[in-house]
Give the backbone structure.
Amino acid sequence: MVVLGLMLVVGIVVTLWWGGITYRLWDPVSVDDIDHGETDNVPPLVRTTVLRYVRGVAVALVGGFWAGALVTGPAVRLIMRLLAVTAGDDAQGRITEADEVVGSIELDGTIGLYLFGGILPGLMSGAIYVLIRRFLPAGRPGGVVFGLLHMVIAATRIDPLRPDNPDFDLVGPGWLSVTTFGLTCVLHGMAVVAIANRYSTSLPPAASTRAAWIRVLAPLALPAVFVVIPVVAAALILGLALTIVFSRIVPAVRVAHSRGALLAGRAALCVAALALLPGTIIDLHDVVVRDTAAGASTLDVR
């Protein structure tokens, strides 16, 4: 718990320190690309498209993995410990949805929660951020908005505030669950944006020396391990193929980069968030009152 607490402090400091950095675009246009006519109505070379795609994947991996490793994973584990402590004596020793014992600190349970509650969601968020980043505000406001979107769209429908999770009948109180996990959702979004944006400013490095490349690729070493997972590798290959095909359709690319597409994307995010907000509020209310109802039920039985 102490180690996770220290990791969370580092993650929060990094998130706040890098939060104001803006995502840096990169255009690996070579002389061959210019001769090829990319600046007119001819699509870029496949090599250029592949380089752009690989860089985007690298930024997504680094931003998502380290946000999950330094912020989300430690925060989720510490919150579960806090909720177990505040749940009271009746909850101690009971079994959670993940077959863990309330009140017991076990290494395998901590690793599982750290991985499935922090790193894997972080990797998913990193990929989503790279895809929708241009529809978000720049800098810190973009991180906050991205975190709030996690809260409204995913938190109560997937995790960690899914109202049909039986663990909320065991641990609590509900208001503390909503408050802590809600703040974690926002901090998660801020961390993904901050770390991804920071990494985008250093990839590729300004210098082409071996030492410069080692320094810039070091943060990618651990996240890159997940690329060998068959499902992830297949998704990346499919994404690359679709990107190459799309880049060949010049009118579609022009529309995608237009101001109209930018406004439409932002409008779509707003509409989706507003449409899902009432359901999110109802689900959060259910989590808040669940432990109260469970407690009253237990008293009635006694």
Notes: The chain has one domain: 2-301. The radius of gyration is 22 Å. Residues 259-301 form the longest helix (43 residues). The CA atoms of residues 87 and 171 lie 5 Å apart.
